[in-house]
Give the backbone structure.
Amino acid sequence: MITEALPTDTKPTETSNSEIRRIFDLQKKSQYKVANTTANQRIAKLKKLHEAVLRYRPQIKDALYKDFRKHPSEVDLTEIYPVTSEIKHVKRDLKTWMRGEDVKTPLAMMGSSSYIRYEAKGIVLIISPWNFPINLTFGPLASAIAAGNTVMIKPSEMTPNASALMGKIVREVFTEDEVSLLEGGVETSTALLKLPFNHIFFTGAPSIGKIVMKAAAEHLTSVTLELGGKSPTIVDQTADIKLAAKRIAWGKYVNNGQVCIAPDYAYVHESKKEAFLEEYKKQMKDFFTEDASQESSYARIVNKRHYHRVKSYIDDAIAKGAKVEAGATFDENQDYIAPTLMTNVAKDSKLMTEEIFGPVLPVFTYRNIDDVIDEVNAREKPLALYIYSKNKKNIKHIIHNTRAGGTCINHNAAHFYNTNLPFGGSNNSGIGKAHGFEGFKSFSNARGVFNQHVPNALDLLTPPYDNFKQRLIDFTIKWF
Ligand code: NAD
């Protein structure tokens, strides 16, 4: 039984402009010192971060419980593990990444050699969201440190307990001229975005991503934008329905549906509709009993603003004729919305025009897969697209005729956990990629270095031009 009060939507404490400037100037002075650290020195820093995350594991769980009643096991699975596995990946491969890459030399450039040097971009800004505050702050931080940058972090104001704790961890592990965390909301974010950072890594909504990109353009700062959107899920006639229902229900209700790669809505082949709804409802009960408000595994909506947002989507869908198959009950005192399943949802209702980011699954049926593909392609490119099928031809047809940041076959959201895969969106769902080597590259400048060892052909082709030189140029164009 829940006794503690949930956090109210209070105004965040902002960081002053002078403090922001002070840290930026400090980091500017130390950026080359940090950039010239060896792989072992960077690994030592990440080891300290890794140890701190494990040492503070109980406090992290406590903070996230206070912020939105997240279950401690879910914190381990979705906040602690992704950070520790990202750090382990970096520790394992950093020496290889930092060695850079030798590239081939074309015959016409004989006598030279070339290589790529991955060098730190400089001072980078990480702006993180509230839905996985630890994971989506310390994950990118590991990549930024791996690449040798100094880092300023602006976490979300909506999970104040997690943000304050991350600030404490950062102060304990790093000196402020290498990594600094600045708490605050839009005001602090806006002030930070005025500075000439060398890279900005932003995770959040597409609408805010546009604000970030516009601000970055002022200084031609490169950006990684990890955004969101509506990730469709397709369940075809060959799918294992029981398994699909279980995995989709997990993907939908983990973190109370507040997941950028949650299956936003589902298309189920019409021949499997009844079986799917039945299995899905059974799964909801298996996970959270008949009354999820009494089940500690079920988190809450993060605050009143988002509670009213999701509730208004459900109300709007019902007003437009949607059928509630399960859920759609509420308790405003707890920011509680029951796990909800809906059919007959109008395509012009808010549930289908906006990213849901809450515990509601609209289910549609289809007969012809190409109709689904047309609908998916008529929307913005999603961050993820999921396919449940045993038919290789269907899977290939869907993948080849749609676009998405990532895809799981017979699962959802699980691709986030494989740090060997690039993670990120495409266009409206994001620009650039995170995780593993891709994350390291996002925070690095790939400097192309050309080294001339002996005189080369270009030396023969300098002005003044004459017939002989022209013949040499013609020969080069023809044969090399
Ligand atoms: P948000 O965009 O509202 O906030 C993200 C960060 O931006 C916060 O730190 C916030 O303080 C800051 N911010 C908010 N408004 C701002 C403004 N006007 N100017 C400058 N900074 C501003 O996102 P959120 O509500 O924290 O998270 C939900 C969104 O993030 C969803 O759209 C979700 O899909 C997306 N998301 C994406 C990923 C991913 O990896 N692609 C992961 C998690 C969440």
Notes: The chain has two domains: 17-227+432-446, 232-424. The longest strand covers residues 112-120. The chain has a mean pLDDT of 96.
